[in-house]
């Protein structure tokens, strides 16, 4: 059943586990971190996978040697990257230490968070004004006020913060808003009889959470979502961790949001930029792909299990993400003459 739905919506079900187990590897390759405090069984698959996607902590010195003369720009996913995966999506809080790490990095380098959540919701969790935000899988981005020649102006509007600083909000699926609202009503109606389903309104897209749905009810849920998508070809489905996502069918994803933000920061087709993207989910692969295609920067996957990925490097869990960001901002403060202030 699962395979059929995802064939229909162009995705395959994931077999990955999401548990945040103990760190299975030391980071010693180039004088980095050693995090393991007790021996843990290391499985051979994981070792082979790590050889292909080395730890960004172990590889830090090598990575940073490529930053000479380039502007680092940091892109971060939210759930599973800055906050651990938890059973209630409303409680995916980030720790104060992680917030401090993100604040420090954003004071060093331009930093954006690109999430599947609504932009407002991510801001509520992160609460930092020094960061750019892109919500709804990149369909709602607030970025710098620099001109972006490649993008449709009719989807851009000016916005000002409390201090009068100008930003541009770019919403390429703006025309879909009324339809998304109708989809929200319909998906709630279709799934209300299935215990454990939670629908999250991410403004330009919807999340159908099934973490608390019994195995025997899952097929029914899948069938409802499949039928709904078949009736609304202007929407399509993607999949995340125990979540089915309903998104407008425009060619736009986290990778496009990354490109948009780079251009609005003045780095369109620039060889002087080094983007770093850290994410844990399937939708982050779109951004990893963009970096691989541009042949620039570092895509880093957050995973404690081997996964098919376009990422070059890996981090085990959000706590390693925090260590990486802290290390990068220390390097930034020591090595860049002018810190980035937005
Ligand atoms: O792009 P992201 O920031 O990673 O957002 C992807 C989805 O994240 C959230 O769901 C996931 O995290 C929840 C909290 O840990 C977890 O309960 C859920 O099972 C995960 O799928 C968010 O609630 C979704 O709307 C996002 O699409």
TrEMBL record:
Enzyme class: hydrolase
Listed EC numbers: 3.1.3.12
InterPro entries: HAD-like_sf, HAD-SF_hydro_IIB, HAD_sf, OTSB-like, Trehalose_PPase
Protein name: Trehalose 6-phosphate phosphatase
Catalysis: reaction(s): alpha,alpha-trehalose 6-phosphate + H2O = alpha,alpha-trehalose + phosphate
Pathway: Glycan biosynthesis; trehalose biosynthesis
Function in brief: Removes the phosphate from trehalose 6-phosphate to produce free trehalose. Trehalose accumulation in plant may improve abiotic stress tolerance.
Signal peptide range in chain numbering: none
Cofactor(s) it depends on: a divalent metal cation
Molecular function GO labels: trehalose-phosphatase activity
Pfam families, sorted: Trehalose_PPase (PF02358)
Region of interest (Disordered), ranges: 10-29
Family under the similarity heading: Belongs to the trehalose phosphatase family.
UniProt keyword list: Hydrolase, Stress response
Biological processes, Gene Ontology terms: trehalose biosynthetic process
Top-level taxonomic group: Eukaryota
């Amino acid at each position: 059943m699962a395979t059929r739905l995802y064939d229909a919506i162009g995705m395959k079900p994931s077999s990955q586990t999401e548990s945040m187990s103990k760190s299975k590897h030391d980071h010693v390759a180039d004088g980095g971190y050693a995090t393991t405090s007790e021996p843990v069984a290391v499985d051979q698959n994981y070792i082979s996978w790590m050889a292909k996607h080395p730890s960004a902590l172990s590889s830090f010195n090598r990575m940073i040697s490529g930053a000479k003369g380039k502007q680092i720009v940091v892109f971060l996913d939210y759930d599973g990257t800055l906050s651990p995966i938890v059973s209630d999506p409303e409680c995916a809080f980030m720790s104060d230490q992680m917030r401090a790490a993100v604040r420090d990095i954003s004071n060093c380098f331009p930093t954006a968070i690109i999430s599947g959540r609504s932009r407002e919701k991510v801001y509520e969790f992160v609460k930092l004004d020094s960061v750019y935000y892109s919500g709804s899988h990149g369909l709602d981005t607030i970025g710098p006020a620099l001109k972006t020649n490649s993008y449709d102006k009719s989807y851009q509007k000016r916005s000002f913060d409390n201090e009068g600083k100008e930003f541009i909000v770019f919403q390429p699926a703006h025309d879909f808003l009324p339809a998304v609202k109708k989809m929200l009503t319909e998906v709630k109606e279709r799934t209300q009889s299935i215990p454990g389903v939670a629908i999250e309104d991410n403004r330009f897209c919807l999340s159908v959470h099934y973490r608390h749905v019994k195995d025997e009810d899952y097929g029914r849920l899948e069938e409802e979502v499949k039928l709904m998508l078949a009736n609304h070809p202007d929407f399509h489905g993607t999949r995340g961790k125990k979540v089915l996502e309903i998104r407008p069918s425009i060619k736009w994803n986290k990778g496009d949001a990354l490109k948009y933000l780079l251009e609005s920061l003045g780095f369109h087709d620039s060889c002087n930029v080094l983007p770093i993207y850290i994410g844990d989910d399937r939708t982050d692969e779109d951004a990893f792909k963009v970096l691989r295609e541009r042949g620039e920067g570092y895509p880093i996957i957050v995973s404690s299990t081997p996964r098919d990925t376009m990422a070059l490097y890996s981090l085990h869990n959000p706590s390693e993400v925090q260590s990486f960001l802290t290390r990068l901002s220390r390097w930034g403060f020591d090595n860049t003459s002018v810190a980035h202030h937005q």
